[in-house]
Design a protein that fits this description.
By secondary structure, the chain is of the alpha+beta class. It is built from 6 helices and 4 strands. Strands 2-1-3-4 form a 4-stranded mixed sheet, with helices on both faces.
Amino acid sequence: MAVRPSIPNRDKLATMFSSFLKTLPQISIFHNPSSPTSVRALAMLRSALSAPYPPDKQDAPPLQFNLEVVERTPPTPDQIKTIMSYLGTKSSENTPYSAFLSAHPSAPGLSEQPQTAAAISNLAARTPEALKWPLVVDWHGGRASVGDVDGVKSILEGLRQRRDGEGTKDDVNRPGGWFS
């Protein structure tokens, strides 16, 4: 009969090492400082890290997440594909990539719209005004927002719910992020 060696403070060790498994959510903002919406979204993300969240609840702690600010650089084609999967498809859109295009005069017309993730990335690199800014992505939670402050609020609310241990119905069918 094999004797199992006793490990002193086994529970303490398990707790200590399990903390390595807990990672902070990774939020990226593809930011264009010339876009007022992008500036508001970045301020909102930074505030959620440094002040009580939600802001109207002064006894609440700030949110905890890693914030990556990618300034004036569009997502790569692979990142765009992942963001598309987080956004889901909307039947009202003419092409799946039209969600990324702004109403700016430099944006292509309906017949000229890019049909691939690489084409969107290339267009945004050549003509930043053609893209809706910001693109905010919760890589762990599988959520994204394109050109929309309300979408950023939704991402932050999802992080708050996770922090506060509140489950959501959306989490059941949500695809996992890159790091989950």
